[in-house]
Each structure stands twice: as structure tokens, then as C-alpha cells.
Design a protein that fits this description.
mainly beta; Elongation Factor Tu (Ef-tu), domain 3; 2 domains; six-stranded antiparallel beta barrel; 3 helices; 41% strand; repeat; ATP_synth_asu-like_sf; Lumazine-bd; riboflavin synthase activity
Length: 196
């Protein structure tokens, strides 16, 4: 479990393909503090640390993960968001994020305002029931609030701290991002579908 409050960004140093899997070596300020078998959110995708060396860590994504997320389009040098799993004796500053991306969305527009930024994202309309006005959503693992929600678009506003300390500053029109919808909304939807 995660909170969607990004701890650091990392850089993709190298990518290794083996069969249908892809392994990523990531360099970051957190890498030296990680342990093998630890869960870490990488742009909102929970991946297990499987090797450590020289201030870097390696994680492996299987075919299913590569199909449902933007990991298959990662390239060396790319910056990604990182968050270690939640500590249960602290405050929950964002919202409950599992690190299980539901789909990808495409940035339609990036607007620089006077001291903040707005991003408009288009997502698959079959998930429309999970996106609500002023609701929580994880974009590349970052806990954000949606507004101007319609059937297949939503907008998020980004404060300067988030812009400077996450990978959102690299998102442009056309960029694919990982989305995870609010787990509470997903449970409500499931309960309602079974009670019909």
C-alpha cells in the first residue's frame, strides 16, 4: 500500500528484455536504502526490488504489467516517480494507493498558469464511473484531485512543490501516464454490480 505522496524521482539507467519480461535498473536517492524483495511504487506501479548495486536497484515487470501500463514505453534516461510502501504508524497524507495501475491516460493539454499548472487527461470511457468531481486519483503514482470531470476527461491542478519534486514536469501533450482509480470507489462499484 502507498499514499501517493512521492518521495523521490529516479532515472532509468538500463533496460533488459528477457522473454516477455522487462527489467529496469533505476538510479535514485532511495536506491541505497532499499532491500531486496521490497515493494516500491514506480510511476504508480508496484514492483519488487530484485537486485541492488552501486546506488541502483533493479525491478522486473511481467507481460501483463507491460500491457496495462506505460512501462513498455520507458526509455533509458527517463525520470520516474518513486514511493516506498506506507508505514502504518504515520499520517496518510494522500489517499490509499495500491500500486496496481488500472489503465493509461493520455495528456491532452498542459497549461502553465501564474504559479501552478493544469493538466487535462483523456482516459478510457469504460472507467467513467470511477472518476468523480473532487475525487482522488493516482497519476503516475501521485495522489491528485480531479475536477472538470466528464465521460473520458479530467483535469488536475499541480502546485509548484509537486511540479518540482515529481515526474509530472516531464509530462507534455501526448504523454501516456498510469492511472489508478480510488480503491473505495472500486469497492462501491463492485458492491452495486452484485446487488442488482
Amino acid at each position: 500500500m502507498f499514499t501517493g505522496i512521492i518521495e523521490s524521482t529516479g532515472k532509468i539507467v538500463s533496460i533488459e528484455k528477457k522473454g516477455s519480461n522487462a527489467s529496469f535498473w533505476v538510479s535514485s536517492p532511495l536506491s541505497g536504502e532499499l532491500k531486496i524483495d521490497q515493494s516500491v511504487s514506480h510511476d504508480g506501479v508496484c514492483l519488487t526490488v530484485d537486485e541492488l548495486k552501486d546506488g541502483m536497484h533493479r525491478v522486473t515487470a511481467i507481460e501483463e504489467t507491460l500491457k496495462k501500463t506505460n512501462l513498455g514505453s520507458w526509455a533509458t534516461g527517463e525520470k520516474i516517480n518513486l514511493e516506498r510502501c506506507m508505514v502504518m504508524n504515520g499520517r496518510l497524507d494522500g489517499h490509499i494507493v495500491q500500486g496496481h495501475a488500472d489503465c493509461t491516460a493520455i495528456c491532452q493539454e498542459r497549461k502553465e498558469l501564474d504559479g501552478s499548472w493544469e493538466f487535462i487527461f483523456q482516459f478510457p470511457s469504460e472507467f467513467a464511473h470511477l472518476v468523480i468531481e473532487k475525487g482522488s486519483i493516482a497519476v503516475n503514482g501521485t495522489s491528485l484531485t480531479c475536477f472538470n470531470v466528464n465521460r473520458d476527461h479530467f483535469t488536475v491542478a499541480i502546485i509548484p512543490y509537486t511540479f518540482e519534486h515529481t515526474s509530472i514536469k516531464h509530462v507534455q501533450a501526448g504523454t501516456a501516464v498510469n492511472l489508478e482509480f480510488d480503491i473505495l470507489g472500486k469497492y462501491v462499484q463492485r458492491w452495486m454490480s452484485l446487488s442488482r
